[in-house]
Amino acid sequence: LFKFIVENSSQGILVLRKGKPVYSNRKIFTYTGYTKDEIFSRPLSDFIHPDDREAIGAEIITTEKPPYENPGTTFRIIKKNNEFRWVELHSKDILWGGDPATLCFLTDISQHKKYEKELSGYRNNLEEIILKRTNELQEASRQLSDEISKREKTESVLHEHSDTYRKILDDIQEGFFEIGLNGRLLFFNKAMCEISGYSRDELLGQDHRLGIERVDQPRRDARFGSPLFA
What we know:
Layout: H1 2-7, E1 12-17, E2 20-24, H2 26-32, H3 36-40, H4 53-56, H5 58-61, E3 73-78, E4 84-96, E5 99-108, H6 110-171, E6 177-179, E7 185-188, H7 190-196, H8 200-203, H9 217-224, H10 226-229
Antiparallel strand pairs: 1-2, 1-5, 3-4, 4-5, 6-7
Protein backbone atom coordinates (compact mmCIF):
# COMPACT_ATOMS: atom_id res chain seq x y z
CA LEU A 1 0.00 0.00 0.00
CA PHE A 2 2.80 2.38 0.89
CA LYS A 3 4.59 1.65 -2.38
CA PHE A 4 1.36 2.11 -4.37
CA ILE A 5 0.75 5.52 -2.77
CA VAL A 6 4.31 6.69 -3.46
CA GLU A 7 4.38 5.42 -7.04
CA ASN A 8 1.07 7.11 -7.89
CA SER A 9 1.66 10.35 -6.01
CA SER A 10 0.99 13.61 -7.84
CA GLN A 11 4.37 14.79 -6.58
CA GLY A 12 7.73 13.66 -7.81
CA ILE A 13 9.53 11.73 -5.06
CA LEU A 14 13.29 11.19 -5.03
CA VAL A 15 15.72 9.70 -2.54
CA LEU A 16 19.26 11.05 -2.83
CA ARG A 17 22.35 9.54 -1.34
CA LYS A 18 25.59 11.47 -1.73
CA GLY A 19 23.94 13.68 -4.31
CA LYS A 20 22.76 10.87 -6.60
CA PRO A 21 19.24 9.42 -6.97
CA VAL A 22 18.77 5.94 -5.48
CA TYR A 23 14.99 5.94 -5.73
CA SER A 24 12.37 7.80 -7.80
CA ASN A 25 8.67 7.36 -8.40
CA ARG A 26 6.95 7.52 -11.79
CA LYS A 27 6.32 11.26 -11.61
CA ILE A 28 10.05 11.92 -11.81
CA PHE A 29 10.16 10.16 -15.18
CA THR A 30 7.30 12.41 -16.36
CA TYR A 31 9.04 15.54 -15.10
CA THR A 32 12.39 14.78 -16.75
CA GLY A 33 11.60 12.55 -19.71
CA TYR A 34 14.45 10.24 -18.65
CA THR A 35 14.25 6.52 -17.88
CA LYS A 36 14.98 5.04 -14.48
CA ASP A 37 18.45 3.88 -15.53
CA GLU A 38 19.29 7.30 -16.98
CA ILE A 39 18.24 9.04 -13.78
CA PHE A 40 20.10 6.71 -11.44
CA SER A 41 23.30 6.90 -13.47
CA ARG A 42 23.66 10.69 -13.15
CA PRO A 43 23.99 13.16 -10.27
CA LEU A 44 21.02 15.40 -9.48
CA SER A 45 22.96 18.46 -10.65
CA ASP A 46 22.70 17.23 -14.26
CA PHE A 47 18.92 17.71 -14.09
CA ILE A 48 19.00 21.22 -12.59
CA HIS A 49 19.25 24.39 -14.64
CA PRO A 50 22.75 25.87 -14.13
CA ASP A 51 21.28 29.24 -13.08
CA ASP A 52 19.28 27.57 -10.30
CA ARG A 53 21.87 25.30 -8.73
CA GLU A 54 23.06 27.89 -6.25
CA ALA A 55 19.48 28.64 -5.19
CA ILE A 56 18.77 25.14 -3.87
CA GLY A 57 22.06 24.83 -2.01
CA ALA A 58 25.23 23.03 -3.03
CA GLU A 59 24.81 20.52 -0.19
CA ILE A 60 21.93 18.71 -1.88
CA ILE A 61 23.53 18.29 -5.31
CA THR A 62 27.07 17.33 -4.40
CA THR A 63 28.41 13.87 -3.60
CA GLU A 64 30.95 15.23 -1.17
CA LYS A 65 28.68 16.76 1.45
CA PRO A 66 26.09 15.27 3.78
CA PRO A 67 22.29 15.46 3.14
CA TYR A 68 20.59 18.81 3.36
CA GLU A 69 17.07 19.77 4.42
CA ASN A 70 15.30 22.25 2.14
CA PRO A 71 12.13 23.95 3.42
CA GLY A 72 10.92 24.89 -0.06
CA THR A 73 12.81 26.25 -3.07
CA THR A 74 11.76 26.67 -6.69
CA PHE A 75 14.03 25.78 -9.59
CA ARG A 76 13.99 24.46 -13.14
CA ILE A 77 14.47 20.85 -14.13
CA ILE A 78 16.14 20.34 -17.51
CA LYS A 79 14.19 17.74 -19.45
CA LYS A 80 15.69 15.25 -21.88
CA ASN A 81 14.44 17.33 -24.85
CA ASN A 82 16.28 20.38 -23.37
CA GLU A 83 13.02 22.04 -22.35
CA PHE A 84 12.61 22.89 -18.67
CA ARG A 85 9.95 22.49 -16.02
CA TRP A 86 9.52 24.58 -12.89
CA VAL A 87 9.28 22.60 -9.65
CA GLU A 88 9.16 23.36 -5.95
CA LEU A 89 11.46 21.29 -3.75
CA HIS A 90 10.90 20.18 -0.16
CA SER A 91 13.47 17.83 1.32
CA LYS A 92 14.26 16.13 4.62
CA ASP A 93 17.10 14.06 6.01
CA ILE A 94 16.37 10.34 6.36
CA LEU A 95 18.20 7.04 6.63
CA TRP A 96 18.22 4.83 3.54
CA GLY A 97 19.55 1.34 4.02
CA GLY A 98 21.15 2.54 7.24
CA ASP A 99 23.00 5.38 5.50
CA PRO A 100 22.21 9.14 5.60
CA ALA A 101 20.09 10.21 2.65
CA THR A 102 17.70 12.98 1.56
CA LEU A 103 14.02 12.48 0.79
CA CYS A 104 12.88 15.01 -1.85
CA PHE A 105 9.34 16.00 -2.82
CA LEU A 106 9.05 17.84 -6.14
CA THR A 107 5.83 19.66 -7.09
CA ASP A 108 5.25 20.85 -10.65
CA ILE A 109 4.59 24.61 -10.59
CA SER A 110 5.17 25.32 -14.31
CA GLN A 111 1.60 26.50 -14.85
CA HIS A 112 1.82 28.70 -11.79
CA LYS A 113 5.04 30.24 -13.13
CA LYS A 114 3.38 30.82 -16.48
CA TYR A 115 0.49 32.68 -14.85
CA GLU A 116 2.96 34.56 -12.67
CA LYS A 117 4.90 35.67 -15.75
CA GLU A 118 1.72 36.73 -17.54
CA LEU A 119 0.56 38.62 -14.46
CA SER A 120 3.94 40.32 -14.23
CA GLY A 121 3.61 41.31 -17.88
CA TYR A 122 0.12 42.73 -17.29
CA ARG A 123 1.39 44.58 -14.24
CA ASN A 124 4.31 46.05 -16.19
CA ASN A 125 1.97 47.13 -19.00
CA LEU A 126 -0.39 48.69 -16.48
CA GLU A 127 2.49 50.52 -14.83
CA GLU A 128 3.61 51.83 -18.23
CA ILE A 129 0.08 53.00 -19.03
CA ILE A 130 -0.23 54.68 -15.61
CA LEU A 131 3.19 56.32 -16.00
CA LYS A 132 2.31 57.54 -19.51
CA ARG A 133 -1.05 58.86 -18.34
CA THR A 134 0.56 60.52 -15.32
CA ASN A 135 3.10 62.25 -17.58
CA GLU A 136 0.28 63.38 -19.89
CA LEU A 137 -1.70 64.77 -16.95
CA GLN A 138 1.38 66.52 -15.59
CA GLU A 139 2.05 68.07 -19.01
CA ALA A 140 -1.61 69.11 -19.32
CA SER A 141 -1.45 70.59 -15.82
CA ARG A 142 1.72 72.49 -16.74
CA GLN A 143 0.14 73.83 -19.93
CA LEU A 144 -2.99 74.84 -18.02
CA SER A 145 -0.87 76.58 -15.41
CA ASP A 146 1.00 78.45 -18.16
CA GLU A 147 -2.29 79.39 -19.81
CA ILE A 148 -3.72 80.67 -16.51
CA SER A 149 -0.55 82.66 -15.88
CA LYS A 150 -0.72 84.21 -19.37
CA ARG A 151 -4.42 85.00 -18.92
CA GLU A 152 -3.80 86.61 -15.53
CA LYS A 153 -1.07 88.78 -17.09
CA THR A 154 -3.40 89.72 -19.96
CA GLU A 155 -6.23 90.56 -17.56
CA SER A 156 -3.83 92.64 -15.49
CA VAL A 157 -2.76 94.60 -18.58
CA LEU A 158 -6.38 95.04 -19.68
CA HIS A 159 -7.30 96.22 -16.19
CA GLU A 160 -4.51 98.78 -16.27
CA HIS A 161 -5.63 99.98 -19.72
CA SER A 162 -9.23 100.08 -18.54
CA ASP A 163 -8.29 102.20 -15.57
CA THR A 164 -6.36 104.57 -17.86
CA TYR A 165 -9.27 104.66 -20.31
CA ARG A 166 -11.79 105.48 -17.59
CA LYS A 167 -9.52 108.12 -16.08
CA ILE A 168 -9.28 109.86 -19.46
CA LEU A 169 -13.07 109.75 -19.85
CA ASP A 170 -13.52 111.10 -16.36
CA ASP A 171 -11.38 114.14 -17.20
CA ILE A 172 -13.13 115.18 -20.41
CA GLN A 173 -15.68 118.00 -20.37
CA GLU A 174 -18.40 116.16 -22.27
CA GLY A 175 -20.79 113.89 -20.44
CA PHE A 176 -20.16 110.21 -21.06
CA PHE A 177 -22.01 107.13 -19.84
CA GLU A 178 -22.26 103.41 -20.52
CA ILE A 179 -25.53 101.45 -20.44
CA GLY A 180 -25.98 97.75 -19.73
CA LEU A 181 -28.37 95.47 -21.60
CA ASN A 182 -30.92 96.01 -18.88
CA GLY A 183 -30.94 99.74 -19.68
CA ARG A 184 -29.22 100.81 -16.45
CA LEU A 185 -26.14 102.96 -16.08
CA LEU A 186 -22.87 101.07 -15.69
CA PHE A 187 -20.34 103.85 -15.97
CA PHE A 188 -20.39 107.61 -16.31
CA ASN A 189 -17.83 110.36 -16.00
CA LYS A 190 -17.65 113.38 -13.75
CA ALA A 191 -19.12 115.62 -16.40
CA MET A 192 -22.23 113.41 -16.57
CA CYS A 193 -22.78 113.91 -12.84
CA GLU A 194 -22.48 117.67 -13.27
CA ILE A 195 -24.82 117.71 -16.27
CA SER A 196 -27.48 115.55 -14.59
CA GLY A 197 -27.10 117.03 -11.14
CA TYR A 198 -26.91 113.60 -9.56
CA SER A 199 -24.05 112.17 -7.52
CA ARG A 200 -22.17 109.03 -8.56
CA ASP A 201 -24.02 106.92 -5.98
CA GLU A 202 -27.36 108.22 -7.22
CA LEU A 203 -26.62 107.56 -10.90
CA LEU A 204 -25.02 104.13 -10.58
CA GLY A 205 -27.53 101.45 -11.53
CA GLN A 206 -30.28 103.93 -12.35
CA ASP A 207 -32.46 103.63 -15.45
CA HIS A 208 -30.80 105.56 -18.28
CA ARG A 209 -34.06 107.46 -18.85
CA LEU A 210 -33.62 109.24 -15.52
CA GLY A 211 -34.15 112.97 -15.98
CA ILE A 212 -35.28 112.79 -19.62
CA GLU A 213 -38.38 114.80 -20.32
CA ARG A 214 -41.29 113.11 -22.06
CA VAL A 215 -40.87 115.48 -25.03
CA ASP A 216 -37.33 114.17 -25.47
CA GLN A 217 -38.31 110.50 -25.20
CA PRO A 218 -38.98 109.94 -28.94
CA ARG A 219 -35.59 111.37 -29.83
CA ARG A 220 -33.90 109.22 -27.20
CA ASP A 221 -35.71 106.11 -28.48
CA ALA A 222 -34.72 106.90 -32.05
CA ARG A 223 -31.08 107.18 -31.04
CA PHE A 224 -30.73 104.31 -28.58
CA GLY A 225 -33.52 102.00 -29.70
CA SER A 226 -36.56 101.75 -27.44
CA PRO A 227 -37.07 97.94 -27.82
CA LEU A 228 -33.66 97.20 -26.29
CA PHE A 229 -33.99 99.43 -23.29
CA ALA A 230 -37.76 99.47 -22.73
